[in-house]
Design brief:
Elements lengths: L9 H13 L3 H19 L2 E3 L2 E3 L1 H5 L3 H21 L4 H18 L4 H8 L2 H16 L6 H10 L1
Antiparallel strand pairs: 1-2
Helix pairs in contact: 2-4, 2-7, 4-5, 4-7, 5-6, 5-7
Length: 153
């Protein structure tokens, strides 16, 4: 006669699967971090002129539909990377607020693109997300992250 093995309860199986999905491997977090940082840098700091910089976002903001489309895609990518890395919700909300305010500036007809060129929301949002990822993988956050954290307190 065959003996029956006890099967684990479905709740235990779900908890085990959740723990496995929740723990990202460090190389995955590194890859997510690099991609979010790259989009922030390309969006708002491709060409540096002293303390100022202009990126793809600044150039495309002068083209009516292309600027908004890039803004949505780049901002969405940064936020999706934050969700993939399981960044805390308050960080994602802060990054979303920055990106939404950037879109609001773009809506103003002529002055909008000028203000949008100076307001480097993609870079700031990427720094928020990468700083939270740095904390998850026990790296020292960058000085800029510490400065933003002190301003938030």
């Amino acid at each position: 006669m065959a003996t029956l093995k006890p099967r684990p309860y479905p709740a235990v199986q779900a908890q085990t699967a959740w723990r496995a999905a929740d723990s990202h491997a460090e190389p995955d977090l590194e890859r997510i971090r690099r991609s979010a940082e790259l989009v922030g840098r390309l969006s708002d700091g491709l060409i540096r002129i002293g303390p100022w910089g202009i990126g793809i976002d600044g150039v495309l903001s002068w083209i009516p539909v292309a600027g908004e489309a890039y803004n949505v895609l780049a901002g969405g990518f940064i936020l999706v990377q934050g969700v993939r890395a399981r960044v805390p919700a308050h960080i994602l909300l802060g990054a979303s607020g920055l990106l939404l305010s950037r879109m609001a500036f773009d809506a103003v007809p002529l002055a909008g693109p000028v203000v949008a060129d100076l307001f480097i929301a993609h870079k700031w949002a990427a720094r928020l997300v990468t700083g939270a990822i740095d904390k998850k993988i026990s790296r020292q956050p960058r000085k800029v992250w510490r400065a933003l954290e002190q301003v938030a307190i």
